[in-house]
Design a protein that fits this description.
Strand content: 15-25%
Radius of gyration: 20 Å
Helix content: 40-55%
Bound molecules: zinc ion
Number of domains: 1
Largest sheet: 5 strands, antiparallel
Shape: globular
Order of helices and strands: EEHEEEHEHHHEHEEEEEEEHHHH
Structural class: alpha+beta
Number of strands: 14
Distance between the termini: 51 Å
Strand order of the largest sheet: 8-9-10-7-12
Length: about 300
């Protein structure tokens, strides 16, 4: 029998107490579960498409108490927005401050780990000290809000962009698959643009794309995307973004395409054989549905 891995006793990233840490998902686990449940075959990582992935990215980050705190809000978002959108194509949602809390907790997890990474590789990635200071400041504000020491978070904006079906895509880079990339995937990372001074965390949850802005460049335009810390209504329609954040969407599609190129020949053979042996199985799949939409644009 495999020995159960011992949990490390370290400082919890949220409450800062020295406790036994649990493995925390960066992107909430209901996203990967839903992706797996609606997939015909194994799921593969973008970085290493030859490897089957069993679970999404996890890190020893939070203690049990902080995990439990977050999970209440996760369930609420999953039931109020994620599942209705994925399963029943619901496009209009009433939300409250609990949803704002959830979104902040998702971006905070990503930001926390990315700051550690940025600090470690600061010279390689060329991050300026003022950008780092801004991100560190925001992380602190978010942490205090998540711990309920403060009722608001200074300096951030939460936006949700629904990646709806598209019919046209002007200047589409060759070979990219927008629907397949966003509807059949998940990702989360922090980025910064040194010329526009836009810093944000982006998280794709199968087409529900969360942007948390830590600094908004001049002349940016976001329409029908922002969620306030209170009651509001969110509609997956007539949303517009004019921002360098849009470039990240293109980058995610390009990386997804590279992943396909990296898939080994043996792996490709196996996948093609599976489709050839049982074409009906594939044509009924969610992956095929997304690919069909990509062939049409
Ligand atoms: Zn804790």
């Amino acid at each position: 029998m495999a020995k159960k891995q011992e949990r490390p006793v370290r400082r919890c990233a949220l409450c800062h107490e020295i406790r036994e840490l649990e493995e925390s998902h960066i992107i909430p686990k209901f996203v990967f579960r839903h992706l797996r449940k609606t997939s015909q075959g194994a799921l593969r990582s973008l970085d290493n498409p030859n490897k089957v992935i069993q679970d999404s990215e996890k890190h020893y980050l939070l203690c049990g108490e902080c995990e439990d705190l977050f999970s209440t809000y996760e369930t609420k978002f999953a039931n109020k927005i994620f599942y209705p959108y994925q399963k029943n194509a619901v496009k209009e949602f009433n939300y409250d401050s609990d949803i704002y809390y959830f979104l902040t907790s998702v971006s905070w997890r990503s930001l926390y780990l990315d700051i550690l990474d940025f600090v470690e590789h600061s010279s390689d990635i060329g991050i300026d000290v003022d950008i780092l200071n801004c991100l560190i400041e925001r992380e602190k504000n978010m942490r205090e809000y998540l711990l309920k020491k403060k009722s608001t978070v200074e300096g951030i904006e939460n936006h949700i962009f629904f990646f709806e079906d598209i019919k046209e895509f002007f200047n589409k880079p060759k070979g990219i698959k927008p629907h397949f990339t966003f509807h059949r995937g998940e990702t989360s990372y922090t980025f910064f643009n040194k010329s526009t001074h836009t810093y944000a965390t982006i998280t794709n949850m199968m087409g529900i794309i969360l942007f948390t802005l830590y600094n908004k460049g001049e002349g940016e335009y976001w329409e029908n995307t922002e969620l306030i810390n209170g009651n509001g209504r969110l509609i997956a329609e007539n949303q517009k973004i004019q921002s360098v954040c849009g470039n990240e969407l293109i980058d995610i599609m390009k990386r997804s395409k590279e992943g396909v190129v990296k898939t080994s020949e043996i792996q490709k053979e196996k996948i093609y054989k599976k489709i050839k042996d049982n074409p009906e199985y594939f044509t009924k799949s969610k992956a095929f549905e997304a690919l069909k939409k990509d062939f049409n644009i």
